[in-house]
Amino acid sequence: MADLLQEIEAQIAAAKTTAGKQNVGTIREIADGVAKVEGLADAMLNEMIDLGHGITGLALDLGETEVGVIILGDYTKLEEGDEVRATGKLLQVPVGKGLLGRVVNTLGEPLDGKGPVRSDVAYPVEKIAPGIIRRRPVSQPVQTGIMAIDAMIPIGRGQRQLIIGDRSTGKTTIGIDTIISQARLNKAAEAAGDKEYRPLYCIYVAIGQKQSTIARIIATLEQAGAMPYTIIVASPASDSATSQYLAPFAGTAMGEWFMDNGMDALIIFDDLSKHAVAYRQVSLVLKRPSGREAYPGDVFTSTADCSNGRHASEKSMATVRSQLCRSSKLRPATSPLTSPPTSSRSRTGRFSWKPTYFTKAPAPRFPSASPSPALAPRHSSRP
């Protein structure tokens, strides 16, 4: 008995008390995937919030007395009065070659049933891009595999390209054909042992698409043998508006890893119009004022990191090019010059906005020979 008492006294004497500080708050209101939290005085913008029940939130609206948190998961498990904690970490997603051939959600969690993702590196979703002066100019082309596009429209690694058109006109097909074309070029270079060829890895971000459409795209890529070079970030229409809003940022972070490690990546956002709708829904639930056509005033800013602007039925294709010795760009920044859009009324009676592209014709190959009037350099306008 005496030995037991001595052992207990020794443990008490060796015990040390330390005081820890943690940012803790409570849920005041919850609705439509957004929670209003009180008590998080030191919360940061885009900080991950632990809401309990294995659910994570993102601090998106910082007020004087409360914080607006968008919920990344099933918000029906949460109730008013629940305790939440700030993690002190910004939202991150797994990156690396372990994601190639996989289908993941906005948080990088696997959806294809092939086991956990093999990745030991995580990149923040929000990242500051370097200035224009530090970026390297576009010099290497990207071939889509479609002769008409490759012959008329110059697309290079490090450039963004907007694919705009009415419904069911083949916008998604252009992106999928481009992914298949890059896979074929990568395989041909590997078979030939060409060490100078830089493979172009592809990231397809599906925003607000039907699950059947995403499954059909995956089957097409698998049949063409393009999945080993492709990452699919799926945020279908059944996901919350929060997931659809963050999906293109997650895809961009995955592409930046390839860029930082001396590789090139092609990112296809399909499509940004649904992304703008999701951001509008999140903003209105956060009680932010609505702007033109009920869209928030900063909707252009929210999509500028991915591709430029918002449009009805638009898709975007952007390439992230590694910069080797020079500092690299984080987001594509080179695109054709665009004049102010012109509006026209379509057959259905709705207004369709069509930007006008001004491209400069290339100089003749032989300057000494006088070019024919048909081939003389001039500015041409294409709808």
Structure description:
The chain contains seven helices and 18 strands. The model is unreliable at 308-313 and 323-383 (pLDDT under 50). A six-stranded antiparallel beta barrel has the order 1-2-5-4-3-6. A six-stranded mixed beta sheet has the order 8-12-11-13-14-10, with helices on both faces. A two-stranded antiparallel ribbon has the order 7-9. 36% of the residues are buried. It is globular. Helix 5 (241-260) packs across helix 6. The chain has 383 residues and is of the alpha+beta class.
Give the distance, in angstroms, between the N- and C-terminal Cα atoms. 93 Å
Mean pLDDT: 78
Rg from C-alpha positions?
Answer: 25 Å
Largest sheet: 6 strands, antiparallel, barrel
**Strand-pairing-aware structural class:** alpha+beta
Strand segment tally: 18
By DSSP (H or I, 4+ residues per run), the number of helices equals 7
Relative strand content: 25-35%
Write out the strand line-up for the largest beta sheet, numbering strands in chain order.
1-2-5-4-3-6
Question: Which residues sit in consecutive blocks of at least 5 with pLDDT less than 50?
Answer: 308-313, 323-383
Estimate the helix proportion, in percent: 10-25%
The topology string of helices and strands comes to: HEEEEEEEEEHEHEHEHEHHEEEEE
- The dominant shape is globular
Provide a concise account of the structure shown.
This protein is α+β, with helices and mostly antiparallel strands. The protein has 7 helices and 18 strands. It has a 6-stranded antiparallel β-barrel with strand order 1-2-5-4-3-6.
